[in-house]
């Protein structure tokens, strides 16, 4: 006997139990040929009902109430027939419903297929506008998430593929977060790394003034100013160098790449949560975040491999000509800033430019609270950076390189200058006690 109900074919097959004439009904549900998904509707008569058939001539058939009762009890004990309540329970756990479980006192969910929260990973990771307007950032990997939690960042949602991955995190700091267990294949789809670790978290966008930066006993009176750094890898490497060199803080001008971009986070290796980083600053705001008696130096990335320039710096420290300022913007920091060379024949142009002396990087230049400005490789330094160096009696620091070498990578130049500045400041602290460090802490407190 076959019945067609809403795209589902229900086939009823009978089987004989024992030697009696009692026939048990079994139902097999087969999906119809329609492409539209359908819902299986169970008939009013549940599986397990005893069907009394008409006896065939010549065949004995015993159908007593006693026999029916024994057959039903035996079939139910054997597991062939499910109770009515169990079937409806299975219907309530339809696909799309999240199942809540518990681990070490924390509740977590199993993500259902098509969970829209997973799609937010792509928005947070790829859209700077979304990160800024929604106030969210995405962190991937155990180490980076642990660094954020140790610094006091607020987690919102944590996606993990295995319970063991979740246990690697400090669970006591995840009590206010939503924990969601997903398939590793889903994490691999949205992950931006080659070998995902199986744990991704969405945090509230941290405020540097509210984070807890510990283990800063080795910091020195040195600040890093990133001016128009567009490459994410370079910016992340510079932040990592700033932490390693013991910088007190890092200031980023408007025009720099987003400091919370995933590529920057991976290259920085947790630097975001080890020292204060202040992004999207105007030059007036940068001066306010520096101590009063600071000296600002700029990295001269226009010298290249010209050996005559090195000799010139060694022999004389006179103010360079305007033709040497092709690496400086002629206008304030704007979105469509043009960078151009200057004609040395014009005295008016020469007088309008900042007058900053050049100095070799290994000479003495870090003798008090110091700030170092590193410009982008494409456009170089902003005019405001050189004006600030002139205002604070700073220098253009020159790193000599071998012939036929155009210039150093901005991150490499930053690492050389930062560690040289650290060496000079530590030497000064050894000779004059710890007065310099206490002065720096008083200015920033």
UniProtKB/TrEMBL annotation:
GO terms for biological process: methylation; rRNA processing. Keywords: Methyltransferase, rRNA processing, Transferase. Residues 328-348 are annotated as: Disordered. InterPro entries: Alpha/beta_knot_MTases (IPR029028), MRM3-like_sub_bind (IPR053888), Ribosomal_eL30-like_sf (IPR029064), rRNA_Methyltransferase (IPR051259), SpoU_MeTrfase (IPR001537), SpoU_subst-bd (IPR013123), tRNA_m1G_MTases_N (IPR029026). One of its GO terms (cellular component) is cytoplasm. The keyword rRNA processing applies. CDD domains: SpoU-like_RNMTL1 (cd18106). Coiled coil: none annotated. GO terms for molecular function: RNA binding; RNA methyltransferase activity. Residues 138-209 form the RNA 2-O ribose methyltransferase substrate binding domain. The keyword Methyltransferase applies. Pfam families: MRM3-like_sub_bind, SpoU_methylase. Belongs to the class IV-like SAM-binding methyltransferase superfamily. RNA methyltransferase TrmH family. This is RNA 2-O ribose methyltransferase substrate binding domain-containing protein. It comes from Channa striata (Snakehead murrel). The lineage of its organism: Eukaryota, Metazoa, Chordata, Craniata, Vertebrata.
